[in-house]
Amino acid sequence: MMRNPLLDGIKRIRRLEATYTSEYEERMRELAIHKEQLRSYVLAGESTGDAITDYFLRGYSVIDSSVALPLRELEEKMRGKVGELFLVTQSWRNRWNHGPGGEDEYLFQKSYITGVLCGGALIFVGSRYGLPTKAFLVLGSQGIVLMDGPFLFPIASGIHAPNTIKIGTQQETEFEVVVGDTEVFECVPKTIGIATFTRIRREYGKVF
Questions:
Q1: What is the value of pTM for the model shown?
Q2: Contact yes or no for 174/91 (Cβ under 8 A)
Q3: Contact 11, 3 (CB under 8 A)
């Protein structure tokens, strides 16, 4: 019986695919081992000399520079702004599903976090990172709440950037961070409002 070159070609390709898949999986296992070893060094107190790189190694065994880019951009905003205001707008939506045939219902909410930077770089506490400040105010559904610093972004599942954090499956939270006196004053009218901002600066002078 004559051999079919098409069937032979298919078999050859499948053998190659299986070989390449096996090799790829082996390389990925090796990479995972090396990354976990690097993570163990950081957990033991070693440092790369860069706090952001250490953070991603310690928490996620990640060395991809593109993942760290949002934090570096945020830190760049903070450069030279010690003693100046910051304003974090936290927007989130909660989703409820009313069962089969029912439409999802969404509740949209916002809160604002403001204070003064007491450092020019991000801080890292365990698996969280945040803004260095001695105290900050939270303006939201509970009114105005004074909190001790620093301000830490919430823990989210997986690696996240400071501008978009998804928590669980029912809630999506986004953060917009503005740093600097001039920048904050410019966005106050469309966020906190001038009257409210003036009042909190008068009543909570120690924060500012």
A1: 0.72
A2: yes
A3: no
